[in-house]
Each structure stands twice: as C-alpha cells, then as structure tokens.
Amino acid sequence: MKKLALHWKILLGMVVGVLFALLLTNFDWGSNFIGDWVKPFGTIFISSLKLIAIPLILAALIKGISDLKDISSLSKMGMRTISIYVITTVIAVSIGLTVVSLVQPGKTINEDTRNELVEAYGGDADAKLQAAAAQKDAGPLQALIDLVPSNIVSAASSNRNMLQVIFFAVFFGISLILIPEEKAKTVKDFFDGLNEVILKMVDLIMLAAPYGVFALMAALVVEAPSADLFAALGMYAVSVVFGLLLMVVFYIVLVKVFTKKSPKFFLNGIAPAQLLAFSTSSSAATLPVTMERVTEHLGVEEEVSSFVLPIGATINMDGTSLYQAVAAVFIAQAFGMDLSFGTQLGIIATATLASIGSAAVPGAGMVMLVGVLGYAGIPEAGLALIFAVDRPLDMCRTVINVTGDATVSMLVAKSQGKLGDPKVKNWDDTYAK
Length: 433
Ligand code: ASP
Known about the structure:
Layout: H1 6-24, H2 30-68, H3 71-103, H4 111-136, H5 142-147, H6 152-155, H7 162-178, H8 181-207, H9 209-223, H10 227-232, H11 234-259, H12 263-280, H13 283-297, H14 302-315, H15 318-334, H16 341-357, H17 364-376, H18 383-387, H19 390-415, H20 429-432
Helix pairs in contact: 1-9, 1-12, 2-7, 2-8, 2-9, 2-13, 2-14, 3-11, 3-14, 3-15, 3-16, 3-19, 4-17, 11-15, 11-19, 12-13, 12-19, 13-14, 13-19, 14-19, 15-16, 15-17, 15-19, 16-17
The structure holds aspartic acid.
C-alpha cells in the first residue's frame, strides 16, 4: 500500500467502500451497521477538512496578497481571474445546452414516469424550493451586501460565509502592503508560519483520505435510491456526465495550449483533489487539498493559488452551471415545453449567475437551479424529476468545479510569470514525510 500513489489509494478506498456496502446490504443489519459504525468516520473526515478551510483562506490569502508587494499586480491578477472564471462558466453552460438539445433526454420520460417521480420526490423537492424562496426575497444588491461582514468572528464561524472571509482577508492583505515594511514584517511572518502549519494539517488529514472515502462511499451506497429510477433518468444523467467529460477535455486543452503542460502532468497532480471532490460533493471541503496539490504538484506559486483558488471554490462552478443548463432544459422537455432561442440565451446568463451564487456544499446547485427554472418559466415541480439522481451528479459536477479552479489557477499563474516547477517531484513525498 505504501508504494501506491495517493490517488490510487483513494480510488481503492472508494471501490472497496462500494463493494463492502453492496455486500452488507445482503444482510438485514447491513445498512444499520454502515450507518452506525462506518458513516461516522466519513463524517469525521469531511469535518476535519472543513475545519481547516477558513483558517486556510485567512492565512493563505493574507500571505499571498502581502507577498505581492503592490496593489497594481493584485488588481491585474484579480481582473484576470474573474474574467477567466466568467468565460469558462459561460462556455460550460453553452456546452450543457448543446448536449441537452442534441440528446433530448426529456423526451425519454413518459407521462406515467413523470407523475411517479413528481409523487415520489415532490416532498423532498419542496425543501429545496423553500430554501430557494428564502433567497428570492432578497433585493438586487443583496449579494453585494452579503459580501461585507459586519463582524469577522461571526463571519468566520460558518463555512457558508467564505466570501465574507475572503473579503476580510483581501482587505487585510492590502492594508498590510500599505504599511511600512518593518511594521508589517511580524504580522507577515506570523501568517507565513500559520500557512505552513495549515498545509501540514492538510498533509496529515490526507493520510486518512483512503479510509475517509471508503466510509463516505459505503454510506452513499446504502442511502442510494432504487435502480429503477436511475434507469428512467439514465439519459438525463448521461447527458450531464457527457457534458462534464467535455469540460475535462476543454481544461486539458487549455492547460496544454497556454502552459504547455501535458495532460498526464495535470491530471496526476490534481487527481487526489478530484477524487475528494467526488466523495465529498463539496468544493469547500476539498479546497485545502486543491490548494496543496496546485501549489506543490502543479507548480503554481502560492501568491497566485492562495488568491485564485479560494475565490474559485466559492464563485467558479463550471460543473454546476453546466448541470443547471442540462437540468432546466431536461425538465422543460419532460413537460413538453419548447424553449425559444432567446430563452436559451437567458439560461446561459441565469445559470452563470446561479452557479456563482451556489454555495460550495452538497446539493447547493439544485437550490440555485430554481432561479433558472423561474426565469425560463419551467415548472418548479420539475425539481422532483431530477431529485433521485442529484447526488451522484453532484459528485461529478463538483469534480469539474474543482478541476476548473485548478485550470484557471495555472492559466493565471502562467500569465503572471508565476508558474514554476512543482515543489514535489515524487507525487507521494508530501505524505510520506
Ligand atoms: N456541490 C457543488 C460544489 O460544492 C455545488 C453544487 O453544484 O451543488 O461545488
């Protein structure tokens, strides 16, 4: 086991977790056993990752920004980052729309299946609708208001407020650049050290990753809905996954063209973060590992990764936006609606905004989908149609969200002259120490 690269160990943990759960479901006590004795270890694993997300953002961003030395390079990097994020998201939605228009998965759902699904999942979908309604009441500038915390301690007390913590860290980092160097030194050294400590915590947590994902996958298998429903929604799921795979190809091409790095280099470097994204369905929980992989294995200098990645984890969700486009059109097709070209263009805009607004946690993309449906006049009851397969698709789209962030960080680093050789040549050195 020791010689195996980390991503293989994690993959093995996932596969063994699935097999173990399938085996145990043959016994009456199997599901309960997994719920009581296996799932908790998965929960502990995710919690330990989330535990370091906020301190990591604080330490890494403050250190990263203060390393920049002047404000103009920060604003240049900021503009570049946000522009590339928006462009990749718009491309993702467009790919989603193209795939769903060609495959037309909604046409495979007959009226009986549709009614069955609405009946079976109507209740679950209601919870998502309520969450969406709470967001709908907000005014047009609510997102801006939400960006600025009124109290940093309470902002940092919830992982959902990551943008507020990012705002504080950027503000703090800028102010640190602006004060005399001898005064800034102690504070800067402190955050440098803190950053190192937290990255070490990531390394230590990753030692447990294969076992953590084992528990997570086993718990998912026993909680999964019946196979019949998967079959009914098969073409829809295939459309989402196919679109997501096209995104991977797109990222690989971007990396190759702009940074000249090979697909193998890129995928080997980012694979552990992708596998964690898949097992946890949360870009926020994966963030510490994404940061570590991008910095140590893909050669992105910390100044760039510590700025681009936390922002990306919260606002850049290419997988989510692609899924929202496919889901919206699928529901429209299932209800026999035809969407005009203008409505489809509107879906590009709303899905882009909805993905920016989605929190980096499991299931968030589905809540924000309600806004896209509302805009296009598609029945919200349609959420019930896609509920059964949402979790597996959430796992897949989270992988793309994380891969997109890593790709953009490489592009931004390259454009700033901050893409070097990876610090870790042998993939597993970090964890073996
Ligand atoms: N789970 C996704 C993420 O954390 C968000 C979503 O699409 O639900 O990136």
